[in-house]
Amino acid sequence: MKTLQATNDFVIKFANVNGSGSASANTLFAKSIARMGVPVSPRNIFPSNIQGLPTWYEVRVCEAGWNARRGGADLMVAMNPQTWEKDVAEVTPGGYLFYDSTRPMPAGKFRDDILVIGMPLTEICNATYTDPRQRQLFKNIIYVGALAALLGIELAEVEKLIGEQYKGKEKLLEPNVKALRMGHEYALAKLPCPLGLQVQRADKVGDKVFLEGNNAAALGAVFGGATVCAWYPITPSSSMAEAFAKHCRKYRMDKETGKNNFAIVQAEDELASIGMVIGAAWNGARAFTCTSGPGISLMSEFIGLAYFAEIPATLVNVQRAGPSTGMPTRTQQSDVLLCAFASHGDTKHPILFPQDAKEAFEFTADALDIADRLQTPVFVLTDLDIGMNERLCDPLTWDDARTYDRGKVLTKEQLDAGARFGRYLDVDDDGITYRTYPGTHPSRGSFFTRGTSRDRYARYTEEGTAYVDNMQRLLRKFETAKHFMPKPVVRPAAKPSRYGAIYYGSTAPAMEEALALFEADGIHLDALRVRAFPFQDAVIDFVNDHDHVFVVEQNRDGQLRTLLVTEGALDPARLGAVLHYDGTPITARFIHGDIAKRLSALQVTPLRRTVAGGASGE
Amino acid sequence: MTYLAKPKLHHPDLPKNALGLTRRDYEGTISTLCAGCGHDSISAAIIQACWELAVQPHRVAKLSGIGCSSKTPTYFLDKSHGFNSVHGRMPSVLTGANLANRELLYLGVSGDGDSASIGLGQFAHSMRRGVNMTYIVENNGVYGLTKGQFSATADRGSKSKRGAVNTDEGIDLACLAMQLGASYVARSFSGDKHQLVPLIKGALTHPGAAFIDVVSPCVAFNNHEGSTRSYDYVRHHNEAVNSLDVITMHKEITAEYPPGSLQEVRQHDGSVLRLRKLADDYDSSSRIAAMSYVQSHYARGEIVTGLLYVEPDAIDLHEHLGTTMRPLNELGDKELCPGSAALAQFNASLR
Ligand SMILES: Cc1ncc(C[n+]2csc(CCOP(=O)(O)OP(=O)(O)O)c2C)c(N)n1
Ligand code: SF4
Ligand SMILES: [Mg+2]
Question: What domain range is B236 assigned to?
Answer without folding.
Answer: 23-330
